[in-house]
Amino acid sequence: MAKPKKTGRPTTYREEYCEQLINYMRGVNSFESFSDVIGVHRDTLYEWCKVNPLFSDARKRGREGLQRGLENISKGLMTGKIKGNAAALIFFMKNTTTWRDEPIQEMDNIDGISFNYEE
After folding, report:
1. Is the dihedral of CA 97, 102, 105, 109 positive or negative?
2. Predicted local distance difference test score (pLDDT) of residue 100
3. ∠ at Cα 67 (28, 98), nearest 5°?
4. Which long-range contacts (CB under 8 A, 24 or more apart) does 71-78 make?
5. What angle in degrees, to the nearest 10, is found between the helix axes of 53-79 and 42-51?
6. How far is the C-alpha of 113 from the C-alpha of 108, rounded, in Å?
7. pLDDT given at position 9
8. Under the phi-then-psi rule, with left for phi > 0, alpha for psi from -120 to 50, and beta for the rest, what region is 7?
9. What is the reported pTM?
10. Distances (CA, A) of 87 to 33, 41, 54
């Protein structure tokens, strides 16, 4: 029995993109902007995550590196070691990480101290 012919355009995915993506995101760059670096549409990156477990893992590892970089910038702003726009950093963090304005529920009561968020 003959193999069925593959249809559609051949993939441009390369395994070396995994390490490139991780390093790119560690440089405090978004997953989506990596598409411009390698010359594909962002939808292509999302599709690669679905069909390539290594690329999906690279995205997760990249996000961890991105978050670490943003936390370091945040600490630098808080301590005065870095000058910058805190509002812009917060906006970027909300759009590229899991940071949100909602309080974490389990943090509402720490060591018997209750926190009231109402004014």
Report:
1. positive
2. 77
3. 120
4. 73/28
5. 120
6. 8
7. 74
8. beta
9. 0.73
10. 21, 29, 34
Q: Are 39 and 45 in contact (CB under 8 A)?
A: no
pLDDT band at residue 97 using 50, 70 and 90 as cut-offs: confident
Q: Which structure tokens are listed for 78? A: 């808080």
Distance from C-alpha of 79 to C-alpha of 89, rounded to nearest angstrom:
15
- pLDDT, tens only, 33-57: 999 999 999 999 999 999 999 999 9
Per-residue model confidence (pLDDT) at position 22: 98
**Distance (Å, rounded) from C-alpha 63 to C-alpha 95?**
12
Check residue 11 and report its DSSP letter.
P
